[in-house]
């Protein structure tokens, strides 16, 4: 009797056990799904994906890698793994110290070695959409947003060239004035990579010019303000540097570049780079008024040197009055004059302790072996070499040393004054490079002003006849442009 009744009891126990195992399996599966979903935008709590190094070593990631290498399709499961678990790694706080490496590994590990072309294209689209969204999130960390935009600029198509789809996103982001400047800078870096990749490919160059030029012009037209001067100048400088790689410059683009060359409110280096870009890309269709632009370049060269001299003169005056960082040196300047609070020289004069005028250099200044005082340099050597670079670039913009390229060659043979101005700029650049000193820069400014006055002066008025013809009988004199 017990044996008969025990069999159903055993069967019921086994049924309960099987049901329990089934419920446990369902529970585990549900937990796994919740864990996967919770990984969106860096909120994954699974310790296996808490950092990129762990995520890269996880079985799921390795499985994705092997599937892509073997030619498998990029399906919904693969997309979910990227969007919910792996791509959010860029935004995890734990990965912040190594975010640059994480950005590089995301692209190399997850997009590299995809055998199927269609799968590679779909994976790239997933990357692009995710990173564009992340770069545009107002509440995301600025560092994360910048790296997301940099990653967009690094995306490649199946032929290992910059992704055309990414270029569209970069151009759109560069044109967005409401994006943070750092994100737009990152977009500009990526766009420059795309522009450089078109070198030697006329069709690609034309396609990129049509896509990128409107965004570049939007940057060049933005007014520089004190609050945005640094980022505006950087963006504009990078944009004008792209223009020669986009083929012959259109008239509207050339007009904007010419405007920058003559704009005293813009940074000197930006204006110098604009002159170089114009010389490299201007053609017959650019509609450039050669004489006016060359005269503007000469004025820019003078202005650049004057800025350096003015800064040196302010420093010299500040030191004379004992002012440093806008504050008087105690006992060293007004009120009270030179050297002491009451305006009189300190005991012993201006020399070292002990009185007198100091060593052979005189007045406490060190001297050279001949006993003559050394001249104090108020213009640093680095500033002199920067001035040399500026003058050399402007000289080449007018006419290169071999007389084969430059704005002077537009529309035929150059005017006699053009080679002369280019030579003056080049000679001053060489002098400053050889002797980067205060006196050399000041002399270069003096000489250049004289050369400009001689070479770019307006034409002299016509001599008046003693017996002029009646106005009605004399044909009007033709208008003559200033000699260029």
Give a quick rundown of the structure.
The protein is an all-alpha fold and 484 residues long. The protein is 58% helix and 1% strand. It is built from 17 helices and two strands.
Q: What number is the mean pLDDT?
A: 81
DSSP summary, beta strand count: 2
Task: Kindly report the oligomeric state of this protein.
Answer: single chain
Sum up the overall morphology in one term: elongated
Beta percentage is: under 5%
Give the count of helical stretches: 17
Name the structural class: mainly alpha
Helix content: 55-70%
The whole-angstrom Rg is 35 Å
Strand order of the largest sheet: 1-2
Could you tell me how far the N terminus lies from the C terminus, measured between alpha carbons in angstroms? Answer: 124 Å
Low-pLDDT regions? 1-11, 22-45, 328-369, 459-484
What's the order of the H and E elements? HHHHHHHHHHHHHHEEHHH
The profile of the biggest β sheet is:
2 strands, antiparallel
Write up this protein.
The chain has 484 residues and is an all-alpha fold. Among the domains are: 38-160, no CATH class; 303-344 and 378-455, no CATH class. Helices cover 58% and strands 1% of the residues. It contains 17 helices and 2 strands. It has a two-stranded antiparallel ribbon with strand order 1-2. A hairpin with a 2-residue loop joins strand 1 (323-324) and strand 2 (327-328). The longest helix is centred in the N-terminal third of the chain and has 36 residues, at 2-37. It is elongated. The model is unreliable at 1-11, 22-45, 328-369 and 459-484 (pLDDT under 50).
């Amino acid at each position: 009797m017990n044996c008969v009744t025990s069999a159903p009891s055993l069967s019921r126990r086994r049924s309960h056990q099987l049901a329990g195992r089934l419920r446990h399996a369902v529970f585990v599966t549900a937990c796994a799904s919740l864990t996967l979903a919770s990984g969106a935008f860096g909120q994954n709590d699974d310790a296996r994906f808490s950092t990129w190094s762990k995520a890269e070593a996880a079985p799921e990631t390795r499985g994705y890698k092997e599937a892509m290498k073997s030619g498998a399709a990029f399906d919904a499961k693969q997309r979910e793994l990227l969007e919910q678990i792996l791509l959010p790694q860029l935004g995890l706080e734990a990965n912040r110290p190594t975010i640059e490496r994480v950005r590089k590994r995301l692209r190399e590990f997850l997009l590299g070695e995809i055998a199927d072309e269609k799968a590679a294209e779909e994976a790239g689209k997933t990357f692009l959409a995710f990173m564009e969204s992340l770069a545009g999130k107002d509440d995301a960390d600025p560092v994360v947003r910048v790296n997301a935009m940099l990653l967009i600029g690094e995306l490649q198509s199946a032929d290992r060239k910059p992704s055309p789809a990414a270029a569209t996103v970069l151009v759109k982001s560069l044109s967005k004035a409401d994006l943070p400047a750092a994100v737009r800078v990152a977009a500009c870096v990526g766009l420059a990579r795309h522009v450089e990749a078109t070198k030697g490919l006329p069709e690609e160059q034309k396609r990129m010019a049509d896509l990128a030029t409107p965004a570049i012009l939007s940057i060049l037209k933005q007014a520089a303000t004190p609050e945005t001067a640094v980022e505006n100048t950087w963006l504009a400088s990078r944009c004008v540097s792209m223009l020669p790689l986009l083929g012959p410059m259109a008239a509207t683009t050339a007009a904007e570049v010419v405007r920058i060359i003559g704009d005293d409110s813009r940074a000197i280096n930006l204006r110098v780079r604009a002159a170089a870009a114009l010389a490299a890309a201007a053609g017959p269709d650019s509609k450039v008024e050669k004489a006016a632009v060359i005269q503007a370049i000469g004025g820019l060269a003078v202005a650049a040197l004057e800025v350096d001299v003015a800064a040196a003169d302010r420093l010299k005056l500040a030191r004379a009055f004992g002012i440093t960082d806008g504050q008087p040196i105690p006992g060293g300047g007004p009120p009270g004059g030179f050297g002491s609070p009451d305006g009189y020289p300190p005991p012993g004069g201006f020399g070292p302790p002990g009185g007198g005028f100091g060593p052979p250099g005189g007045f406490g200044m060190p001297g050279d072996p001949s006993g003559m005082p050394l001249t104090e340099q108020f213009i640093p050597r680095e500033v002199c070499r920067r001035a040399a670079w500026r003058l050399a670039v402007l000289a080449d913009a007018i006419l290169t040393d071999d007389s084969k390229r430059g704005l002077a060659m537009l529309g035929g043979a150059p005017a006699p004054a053009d080679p002369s101005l280019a030579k003056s700029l080049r000679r001053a650049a060489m002098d400053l490079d050889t002797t980067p000193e205060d006196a050399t820069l000041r002399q270069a400014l003096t000489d250049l002003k004289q050369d400009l006055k001689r070479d770019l002066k307006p034409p002299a008025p016509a001599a008046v006849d003693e017996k002029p013809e009646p106005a009605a009988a004399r044909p009007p004199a033709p208008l003559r442009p200033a000699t260029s």
